[in-house]
Amino acid sequence: MNGALFPGQVDKPILRSYQPAQSFSVHLQQITFTMRLLSLLILTLSASTVFSQINIIPQPVSITQPKGSGNFTITTSTTIVLAGGNLEKSAQYLNDYLQLFYHIKLEVTKNNPGQNTIVLNFDRMDKGKGAYGMNVDQKGVYIGGDNEEGVFYGIQTLIQLLPIPLTQNAGSTKLSIPYLSITDYPRFAYRGLMLDAGRHFFPVSFVKKFIDYLALHKMNYFHWHLTEDQGWRIEIKKYPRLTEVGAWRNGTIIGRFPGTGNDGQRYGGFYTQEDVKEIVAYAQARYVTIIPEIEMPGHGGAAIAAYPNLSCFPDRTTKSEFPSNSFWSGDTTGKKVVQSWSVYKDVFCAGKEETFTFLQDVLDEIIPLFPGPYIHVGGDECPKDHWKQCPNCQKRMKDNRISDERSLQSYFVQRMEKYINSKGKTIIGWDEILEGGLAPNAVVMSWRGEKGGIEAAKQKHQVIMTPSDYVYLDYSQLKKEDTLTIGGYIDLEKIYKYEPSPKELTAAQSKYILGAQGNVWSEYIAYPATLEYMIFPRATALSEVVWTPKVKKNWDGFQKRMQTQARRYELWNAQYCKACLTKSSTK
Ligand code: ACM
Ligand code: ZN
After folding, report:
1. Which residue has the higher pLDDT, 445 or 586?
2. Which listed ligand is nearest to 355 at the C-alpha?
3. Among 184, 210, 241, where does a domain finish?
4. Is the peptide bond before 186 cis (omega within 30 degrees of 0)?
5. C-beta 381 within 6 A of ligand 1
6. Do 128 and 215 reside in the same domain of the chain?
C-alpha cells in the first residue's frame, strides 16, 4: 500500500458548475427519495441491522443465498486471516477502506482462530485472472481467489456488501453481511479507462483516486495519455526542456472551440519520475496496470515547442499555423505550446534521424518506469501536410521506396515498434496505425467506431474497443447539459448496452477482442470534480460491460443497483450526474 486510500479526499477543488439544472419537481422527487432512503435506513439499522440488500456492480457470475438466511457481523474483534501468501496488500486495502469509511481496523494474522474471521485464500478455479469464490456464513467471510487479483476482487465485492453509512462519520454502523455464496470472474481480460493529462493536468492525488475508482469497479488497466500538443506531462531527464517549456502554455481558450476568448493565464504541470514511481506502486497494490502513452508522429506540438528541430520546419512559427478563428495569448514568435484544441499540422518530422533518436531516448526513460507489458504510441490524427512539403521526409520516402505519406506513417510506427519490442514491450496504437500496413505485433485501439477493431481482429491482431459513439466519457450524458462538454451524446443506457464483441467476427476472430475502455479526453474537463461528474455513473455501467457475462446483463436490474451505487459515490465524496439516474423525459 502506498499512500492513503482515496488521496485528495479533503482538498477537492469544486471550481466549476457541474450540477445540471433541475426543475423544482425533479428536485422535490429527489428530496422525497432521500427521505424514503433515510427512513428505510433508520428502520434497517434499528431492527438489529438486518441488511439483506445485495447490490453488487459489476454483477457477479453467480450469487446464491441459503434458505433461512442469516447475517455475519464484522466487529472490531473480527480478524483478517492470511491463509495464502502475498495477500498483505489486499488485507491492508480492506483495512484502509474500513478505517476510512467505518472507523474500524481489524487485526491481520496468519493463524486462523476458526471463527469471526475474514479468510483470504487461494482456490484453483481455472477461470483466469481475477476469478474468486466467496462464502459468508456464521463463521465469517471466506474469499478464495484463483490468483492474487481474484482475492482483491473478492474484497471489492465484500466492500459492496457492507451497509453504507449516510455520512463518512457514521462509525457506529453495524457491519452485517448476508449469508451467501458467490462465484465470479471477468468476461474480458482488458477493462480500462483512459485519462488525458495533456489538455489539462491532474495532480498526483487525483491520479491515485482515479486508480481507486478503477479498482472499486474491478477494472484493471489505466491508460495514461501523457503527451499532447497542449502539454508534455512527464519528466524526461535527458530532455529537460520538455517540462521546462513543453509543460506550460501561455493561456487557454475560453468556451467551446474556437472559443470566445483566451484566459491569458499560464497553465501547466508535469509528473516527476518520482511521482510516476509512486503512482505505479499505488496501481500495483490495486492490480491496475498502467499504460503510458507517448504520442507520435502527431500530437507532438509541446515537444516541438521545447525542441523545434523535431519539426519538419523549425523556423515556422506556431502562431502562423494556429487556427485563425481561435484565440492566442502572449508571445507569437517561434514554436509555442498551443492554447486551443483540435488537430495541428506541426508533427514530428519522419525524415530526420534526430526525431527517432529523440523518441528512443524518451522511451529509454519511460520503459523502466512502467512494469506493464504495453507502451501506447498514439498514431492518431497525424496530418501529412508538412511531410508532403518536407525535403527530409520526401528523401526518406524515396530512399525506402515508400509510395505515399500514409505509408511513411506506417514506416514510422513500425520502426518505433521494432525498438519497443527489442526492449520486451508490446505497442498499442489508435486505429490509424492500420493505414499503410499494421506493425507486426501491434495491439489496436479502435476509436473511430469498431471498423478498425474488426479489421485488426481479422488480421489476427489483438484489439481494445473504444468506439467514440459508445465509450467517450467526455461526451454529454444529458440532452440539456449545462456543463461545457465537447458535445456528442452518450447516456447511461447507451453505454450500458454497448457490446464489445462485434457480431461481424467469427468465434475464433472474437478471441482477439481483449476488452474495452472508456476514454476521458480533457479539453473541457479542467478539474477533478468535473471529471468525476463526467465519468459517474457511466464508468460504473462500463464496468459491467467488461466484467459481467452477456446473459447476466440486465438494464432494469442495473438501474435498481445504481440507487445503491449512488450512495457509494456519496460515501466516497465523488461527484456524479444525479439527473442521469432519474427516468425523466427531459433528460
Ligand atoms: C482519439 O480520440 N483521437 C483517439
Ligand atoms: Zn519532415
Report:
1. 445
2. 2
3. 184
4. no
5. yes
6. no
Compute the average pLDDT of residues 543-570: 97
Residues 272 and 333 in one domain: yes
Question: What pLDDT score was predicted for residue 126?
Answer: 93
426 alpha carbon to ligand 2 midpoint, in Å? 26
Write out the residue range of the structural domain in which residue 244 sits.
Answer: 190-582
Indicate whether 462 and 538 sit together in one domain: yes
Residues 225/193, Cβ–Cβ less than 8 Å = no
Atom of ligand 1 nearest to the CA of 472: 2
User: Are 271 and 246 spatial neighbours (Cβ–Cβ below 8 Å)?
Assistant: no
Using a 10 angstrom Cβ sphere, with 0-12 exposed, 13-18 middle and 19 or more buried, the burial of residue 77 is exposed
From the CA of 472, the nearest ligand is 1
Whether 49 is in a domain gets the answer no
Question: Which ligand minimizes its atom distance to the CA of 352?
Answer: 2
- The answer to whether 197 touches 232, Cβ cutoff 8 Å, is no
519 CA distance to ligand 1 centroid (A)?
Answer: 9
Instruction: Indicate whether residue 447 lines ligand 1 (CB < 6 A).
Output: yes
CATH number at residue 376: 3.20.20.80
Query: Where does a domain end: 184, 204, 226?
Result: 184
For β-strands 253-254 and 261-262, DSSP reports them as antiparallel
141 and 197 part of one domain: no
Give me the number of domains the chain comprises.
2
Can you give the pLDDT at residue 237?
98
What predicted TM-score, i.e. pTM, was given to this entire model? 0.92
Distance from Cα 340 to the centre of ligand 2, integer Å: 24
- CA 447 to ligand 1 center in whole angstroms: 6
Residue with cell 450512495: 567
What band does 69 get if pLDDT is binned at 50, 70 and 90?
confident
